[in-house]
Amino acid sequence: MLNVNDKKEEFYSRFFDQLSQSQSWPGIYFFKFIVKSESDNLNKLKSIFSEKKAFFFEKKSSKNKFTSLSIKVKMNSPKEVIEIYKTCSKLKGVIAL
């Protein structure tokens, strides 16, 4: 039986292969996250990209409970994309799409 960490690594391995085949690297990549609007995680997500020239797009839900954050940024490799997703996954209540 696979434990949770094995399943995550299996997922990231498949994701790496998909990213490698889907576009050329370095290249532009779109990240998309959903966070609760009153959460500080919106700023935390943005800070993860502070070293990069990223473009942020925010859209609130109809009742302003959630905010969708899309990020357009140049990434060097699939590995770099996965590292960002792993970093973001440590933020409680953040949904990566």
Secondary structure layout:
Blueprint: H1 4-22, E1 27-36, H2 41-48, E2 55-60, E3 66-75, H3 78-88, E4 95-96
Antiparallel strand pairs: 1-3, 1-4, 2-3
Question: What attributes characterize this protein structure?
Answer:
single chain, 97 residues, alpha+beta, four-stranded antiparallel β-sheet, 4 strands, globular
Written overview of the protein:
The chain has 97 residues and is α+β, with helices and mostly antiparallel strands. The protein starts with a helix and ends with a strand. 39% of the residues lie in helices and 29% in strands. Strands 2-3-1-4 form a four-stranded antiparallel beta sheet. It is globular. The mean pLDDT is 91.
Quick structural overview:
The chain has 97 residues and is of the alpha+beta class.
Q: How does the helix and strand content classify structurally?
A: alpha+beta
Order of helices and strands: HEHEEHE
Largest sheet: 4 strands, antiparallel
In total, how many beta strands? 4
* Rg calculated over all Cα atoms: 14 Å
- Count up the helices: 3
Q: What general form does the structure show?
A: globular
Quote the beta fraction. 25-35%
Give the strand order of the largest sheet, numbering strands 1, 2, ... along the chain.
Answer: 2-3-1-4
Q: Mean pLDDT score, rounded? A: 91
Distance between the termini: 27 Å
